[in-house]
Amino acid sequence: MSDSEMGMVERFTDELDPVVFVFGALITLGVIGAFFIDRDAVSNGIATVNAEMLSYLSWALLVIVFLIVLFLLFLIVGPWGKATLGDEDPEYSFLSFFSMLYSAGFAAGVVFWGPTEALFYYDSPSPLFGVEGGSSAAISVAVQQTLFHWALPQLAVFTIMGIAIGYFAYNYENVPLRVSSALTPVIGKENLDGPVAKVVDILAVFATIGGVATSLGFIGSQFITGLDYQWGISMGDWGILLIVTTMTILFTVSMVLGVDKGIRRLSNFNMGLFVVIMLATFILGPTMFLLLLGSQAMGGMISDFVSMSLYTGTGTDGGTAWVEAWTVFYWAWALSWSPFAGLFIARIAKGRTVREVAFTGIVATSAATIPWFTFVGGSAVWAQHNGVADILGPVGEHGAPVAGFALFEAFPFGSVLMIAFMIIVTTFFITSADSSTLAVSMMTTGGKERPSTINRVFWGIVLGLTAAILMILGDGAGADALQQAVVITGAPFAFVCFLAMLSLIKNFSATEGRVLLQDTTVLVGSTPDQSDDEPAASAEPSDD
Question: pTM, whole model, 2 decimals?
C-alpha cells in the first residue's frame, strides 16, 4: 500500500465518530439483510408499527409542520431575520446557493410527482373540498392540493433544520456541524457528545439512508419505466443493477469532486434544463388554460392554507385515511429527509442571514415549484379530462413513473421532451444522491465539512445498493414496507424539528431581543419586590 493510500485510510479511521458510524451502518445494513432473509415478517412488523404511529401521531405532524411554516415566515419579516450564520462572507453566489438547495434537497421528488400527483387528486379529491372525482370542479382542487403539498410545508422542515444546525455550528465555539447541534440550547453544548446527541445522529443516518434511497428508487424506476414504455427496453433485475450502478458511479464521481466542482455545477445545469422543460410544457400545452388554472389554484391554496394544514379528516367517511395516505405521509417523508437536507443547507449557507436562508428555503423554492406543478401537472389533468391523452390508464398498468412519458407523448416534439425528461431524472438522481451522501459522511465524522473520500464512497455504495434493492422489490410488500419504515423514521424528526425551532426561539430571544414581551419580563415566578416610590431599574437582556 502506497503512502498516499495509507494516508487516505488513516484519515478515514481518524475522522470517524465510531458510535454513529458503526450503529448507523449496522442498522441500515441490517434492514437490507432482513428483507432478504424474511421479507414478509419484516414487512408485517413495519406495517403494524406504521399503522399505530399514524393513528397516534398524525395530528402532531400536521400541527408541528404548520407551526414551523409560521415561524419561518416570521423570520423572513421579523427582527430576528438579521442574525447571520457565522461572520464570514457567503461561499457561493445566491443563484448557486439556490440551485444547490433546490436540486439536492427537493427537486428529485418534484420531477417524479410533477406529471402524476394532480392526476391522483383529480381522480380522488381530498374530502375537505367535497367535489366529485373526475369532474370539472376537481381540476382546480387537484392542482391546489398539489401546490400545498409541494410548496411551503415540505420545504419548511428542511429549512428549519438548516438554519438551526448552521446557526449553532457557526456562531457557537466548539459546536460541530452535525444534526444534533440543532438542539444545542436544549441539551446543552457540554452534552453534544452525550447519549441523547448520539441517538439523534444515529437516527439521522438511518432516516437519511431510508428516505433518500426510497426517493432514488422512485426516480430510478421512472428512468427504467420510460425505457420500457417508450422504446420497449425491458430491464430485469440485472438491468436494474446495471442502471443504478452506472448512476452510483456518476454521483460518486460528482461527490468526490466536491461541492464546488461537482454538486454546484450539476445543480446549475439541472435548474437550466428544469426551466426549459417547464416552459416547453407551458408553451406547447394549453397555455391560457394553465394561466387561469394556476391563478385559481394558487389563490385557493392561500385562502385554504390553514384548513388544509390542520385537516385530519375527522367526521368524514374516508377522510382520515386520505389524509394519512397523502398529507401525513408526505410530511413524514419530508421529515426523514430533514436531517440530510438540513445539514447540507447548513453546509452551503455559511455567512448568510437567517432571513435569506428562510426566504430561499420556503419562498424562492416555492416560486420555482408552483409553476412546475401548475404547467406539468395542470397539463396532465387537462389532457386526461378532455380526452387528449389517457394517462391514468398507463399509470394503472405501469405505475406512477409512466405518467410523464404518457403526457409528453401527446405533445409536439414529444420524443425530444421525453429525452430531456430522462436526462433531468438522471441528473437530479445524481445531485440528490451525492449531496445526501456528503451529509451522511458528515454525520458519521462528527461534523467534518470535508469528509474523506473513503467515507463518502462507502456511503455512496450503501445508498446505491439500497435504491437498487427498492427497485428490484418493485411493487411488492418489500417496497411498501420500506416506505412505511421511512414514515417510522421520519415521524420522530417532527419532534426534533420542533425542538430545533424552540432552540432558535430561546437563543434569539436572548441575543436579538424578545418580540412579544419586554426583555425584563419574568416568564416564571414572581418579580423582585420594589418600593412604590422607587422607579423601576432597566434590566440587562435575559439569558432565558
Answer: 0.85
- The one-digit pLDDT tens for each residue of the chain (544 residues) are 444 554 666 766 777 778 888 887 787 777 667 767 776 776 677 778 888 888 888 999 999 999 999 999 999 999 999 999 998 899 888 988 988 888 665 666 787 788 889 999 999 999 999 999 999 999 999 999 999 999 889 889 999 999 999 999 999 988 988 899 999 999 988 898 899 999 898 888 877 777 777 666 666 666 777 777 766 777 666 666 677 777 777 666 666 665 555 567 777 787 888 889 999 999 999 999 999 999 999 999 999 999 999 999 998 888 999 999 899 988 988 898 898 889 889 989 999 999 999 999 999 999 989 999 999 999 999 999 999 989 998 888 877 778 888 888 888 888 888 888 878 877 777 777 777 777 788 888 877 777 877 887 888 777 777 777 666 655 444 445 556 766 777 888 899 999 999 999 999 998 887 777 776 666 566 655 544 444 443 333 344 4
**208 touches 443 (CB < 8 A):** yes
Residue 541 covered by a domain: no
* Residue 406, domain CATH: 1.20.1740
| Sign (positive or negative) of CA dihedral 173, 174, 179, 184 | negative
Strand-pair partners of 84: 353
Alpha carbons within 13 angstroms on the beta-carbon side of residue 104 total 38
Q: Which three cell numbers stand for residue 524?
A: 416564571
Residue 83 located in a structural domain: yes
- The parent domain of residue 251 ranges over 8-510
Q: In the beta sheet, which residues pair with residue 353?
A: 84
Task: Report in angstroms the alpha-carbon separations of 325 from 50, 215, 263, 475.
Answer: 12, 16, 33, 16
| The total number of structural domains that make up the chain | 1
